[in-house]
Amino acid sequence: MEIDLLVVGGGPAGLSAAITAAELDHSVIIVDENPRLGGQLIKQTHKFFGSESNYCGIRGIDIAEILENKVNKLGITKYLESTVIGIYEDGVAIASEEDLRVVHPKKIIIATGARENMLSFVNNDLPGVYGAGAVQTLVNVYGVLPGKRALMVGSGNIGLIVSYQLMQAGVEVVAILEALDHVGGYEVHAAKVRRLGIPILLRHTIKSAIGNDKVEAAVITKLDEHWQPIPGSERELKVDFICLAVGLSPSYELAAQAGAKIVYIPELGGWLPWHKPNLETSVPGLYVAGDAAGVEEAVSALLEGKIAAADASNSIKENKYAQKLIETTQKELQEFRAGKFGKKIVEGKRKLYASLHL
Amino acid sequence: MRITEHPIIKFKRGKKVTIYFEGKPIEAYEGESVAAALIAAGIYVFRYSPRHKRARGLFCAIGKCSSCLMEIDGKPNQMACMVRVRDGMRVRRQKGKGVLDGD
Ligand SMILES: Cc1cc2nc3c(=O)[nH]c(=O)nc-3n(C[C@H](O)[C@H](O)[C@H](O)COP(=O)(O)OP(=O)(O)OC[C@H]3O[C@@H](n4cnc5c(N)ncnc54)[C@H](O)[C@@H]3O)c2cc1C
Ligand code: FES
Description:
heterodimer, A: FAD/NAD(P)-binding domain, five-stranded parallel beta sheet, B: mainly beta, 30% strand, binds FE2/S2 (inorganic) cluster
């Protein structure tokens, strides 16, 4: 099938890209592995922070619905429960339980999001050790509890938000561990969990998980200022599951398979496809957007998706509307990143742009 | 364990179906993943690793880590976190690498 744009991934970045391109009169297909669109948004029951024009104060699940409705209204073709398995010179392969399709897009936007980081400790592969996002999926999407008493590792926004949501769902979070000497996430979220009485233990980490075929306890330890465990400070906590919220890494595999140059930028979450300010990778016509282009937030994912789609539109056929859209959206993105938490991203993107001269 | 009451989320569960874990019937709801149904039933061990035979279960829940591979309706290496339940589905713990049809 011949189309203008293929969007891989139906999170905020992919949805915004698909909507933008369709509004610019392009034919678009959006593909997602899940039965419904929304990506990470469908598990986020908390209200979003961000700029007013970008859904601030609305719950993630509701933002997903608004975007999904737009996609439907614009008549964008959706392939759900489908995975893009390879991007080749002679077409893009999309697999589902029933069939394998090949499409021929003029441009491709990869918005595959990020995956959760592992942490090294004894028995970290024991059932009952979950990524925080996994727990969020179980609890908020399926209404299933993985246990009654949890240990959270990591006090970034994800660790804090998921702890709060676990308490809402009736789980006791016995502690949140943080290796740094300060809380990683926003103070508003930290204050919320403290009000619920969850202790945030700074300069602490997990040493081991205990259990036969399933987590029954966790051993935690204090760290000195050189990040070394302090002997004798170990403590055993009775918990039946452990949540790791120790960061995300961009899902860059598909871009790598397509031949895009991959670079390592710690500020953006590690390995990721090199890209230009308008999100085009080193492969002409192949774009990345959202967490796949550097782990950040939903608002920036929305904005990046818009820029990538507008740039793709403009290179299919030069048009003033797309150019104007790129300009205004870049400005919005800059403003969004101007705050304290945007600093790291700005630095990471600067390094990225400087890291390759094509 | 399933949540029945929640301050902000209304869970719209699909039609009730039955899946079989190691031959034992388990209640599940249409639309949910095999992993969610198993954990709701208190089953956490999804497979044993090939070399050291260590128990493995759900980790990422979004199809990105392969920790949850199971044998589903006779097919090995299925991600329990991505495959949706179907009435009558047969699910088994995977031992080792799994053998493909015709092997
Ligand atoms: C607990 C938590 C709380 C958060 N809170 C906030 C908040 O309050 N405010 C905020 O701004 N941000 C928040 N975020 C961050 C925000 O959710 C992410 O930055 C954002 O979702 C990234 O969007 P994305 O579109 O890049 O990726 P995702 O939302 O991850 O979407 C990627 C999609 O691509 C699909 N996919 C991947 N590979 C393929 C493939 N090969 N074929 C087909 N489909 C594929 C995936 O299934 C997924 O649906 C939070 C994140 C988490 C985990
Ligand atoms: S739990 Fe990671 S792939 Fe299923």
